[in-house]
Design goal:
Layout: H1 5-34, H2 38-65, H3 69-78, H4 84-94
């Protein structure tokens, strides 16, 4: 999976998407329901690092394989939607980009 630019992008998408889900569905409930704000501090910092790395991987993929603006904009947009990266991955697998 990590041998091609698309493979690297897909892997980073899984990491970034997973960190968003951890932040939204585990860390934030711990902060507001259990009174543990440290959870958001730790997971939020990790997610922020992974998000910036994800954006860099989008730029790398766009320039390396001459990705269209549609794919690059979609990749950025789905980063803000829970489960968005996983849905984009399904579309990437169906496209000819992963071949």
């Amino acid at each position: 999976m990590l041998k091609t630019p698309i493979g690297k992008f897909r892997f980073m998408g899984f990491l970034e998407g997973g960190s968003l889900l951890l932040l939204l569905f585990i860390a934030m409930p711990l902060k507001y329901a259990a009174g543990i704000p440290e959870a958001v501090r730790v997971v939020g910092s990790l997610h922020g690092f992974l998000f910036i790395t994800y954006l860099l991987v989008i730029a790398y993929t766009t320039f390396k394989i001459r990705w269209s603006l549609k794919w690059a904009a979609s990749a950025v947009a789905v980063a803000f939607i829970p489960f968005g990266n996983f849905i984009l991955d399904i579309f990437l697998k169906k496209s000819s980009l992963t071949d």
